[in-house]
Amino acid sequence: MVHAPPPPPPGLPPVRVNLYSDTQTKPTPAMKAAMVAAELGDEQAGTDPTVTALCERMAALLGKEAAVFLPSGTMCNQVAILTHCRPGDEILAHETAHILTSEGGGAAALTGAQITGLSGPQGQFSLEALQAAIRPKSRYAPPQTLVEVEQTANLGGGAVWPLATLNAIAAFAHECGMATHMDGARLTNATVAAGIAPAEMVAGFDSVWLDFTKGLGAPLGAVLCGSSEFIGRAWRWKQRLGGSMRQGGICAAACLYALDHHVDRLAEDHANARVLARGLAQIEGITVEVPQTNLVFFDTTGTGLTAEALAARVRREGVAFSAMGKYRGRACTHLDVTLGQIEDAVSVIRHAVTTQR
Ligand SMILES: *Cc1c(COP(=O)(O)O)cnc(C)c1O
Fold first, then answer.
1. Can you tell me which family this protein belongs to (predicted)?
2. What are the pLDDT digits (tens) for 242-298?
């Protein structure tokens, strides 16, 4: 699985349509102006007014008591796991979850917790799958202390967990004495697509975070929310891991700007993703997973090209997408991709497929 773009081989043209990831957005001039104008203090001491404003705003938006600003989504997940779990604990999550596949074994390395992967379509597991994974409590079994879901499910094709499933899973987890954590890297994509208020969507979750670098266009930053007691304990892990910052407000200002200007427009990215999916589906040999949000996954088996080979061919024409499996490509729409660029990318991909036959 490729997560970081390989360094461009010499002689490649610059990328003109960047569907590689929704993390590739650059701060807009207006966002940069907001960053320059931010009032700053010492984040570590709790006296950066812009970070404080962002945390208060996020806690209110997600209906939680408190929030903490962290440099990345990965650190939100790891701090949350460290705060919820103890060594030897078991976390239940989907088998494709970011915490299981893409965080360097962080739960094992840092907390000493094991993650058991549950299966199910679109990066989601059912209440029944969760129930089936519950072990009888005994001194043989690992203490099962945390259930984690990813909204939207990245490797599940950007699928949105239905609210009823989220609520059923959270209620059951709590009945079993487990805590609930939501990896909300793309939470606002889910709330915009489903038309559900963020606080309502995450009501069943003890901890939840939003990434400001996924489609929201900020250069860095994520905010983890939960009860005051939880966030108080999370702060110690933030400190221990070196996640406490100084004039962090310069980045929090970008996140505040994104909340004001880049959330509602996610609907545009979702519409562009549907146009992209329809265009790709018309190319012989490509089958497309119908997108629910801004991620478009497609299968290249019928073209005779691996996803990586096709990506390399179109990259020579200035179009970038990522290979997430041997024949599974992913194209992301975001702030810096226009409808015109989508049409451009589809024709470049079509040309790359048809000329290699
Ligand atoms: C990107 C991502 C993360 C990690 O976020 P970073 O800000 O890149 O550390 C976690 N979970 C999911 C689902 C993601 O897509």
1. Belongs to the threonine aldolase family.
2. 999 999 999 999 999 999 999 999 999 999 999 999 999 999 999 999 999 999 999
Is the pTM for the entire model greater than 0.85?
A: yes
Nearest CA to ligand 1 atom 14: 185
Q: Are 219 and 119 found together in one domain?
A: yes
Query: Ligand 1 centroid vs 322 CA: distance in angstroms?
Result: 16
* Long-range pairs for 136-142: beta carbons < 8 A, 24 or more residues apart: 141/90, 142/88, 142/89, 142/90, 142/114
Angle separating helix axes 187-194 and 266-281, nearest 10 degrees: 80
Domain end among 235, 261, 287: 261
Ligand 1 nearest atom to the CA of residue 153, by list position: 13
Number of domains, the chain: 2
Last residue in a domain, options 261, 278, 299: 261
Alpha-carbon distance of 224 to 158, in angstroms, equals 21
The verdict on 246 and 287 lying in the same domain is: no
CA of 255 to the centre of ligand 1 (A): 16
Q: Find the domain containing 322 and state its range.
A: 17-26+265-356
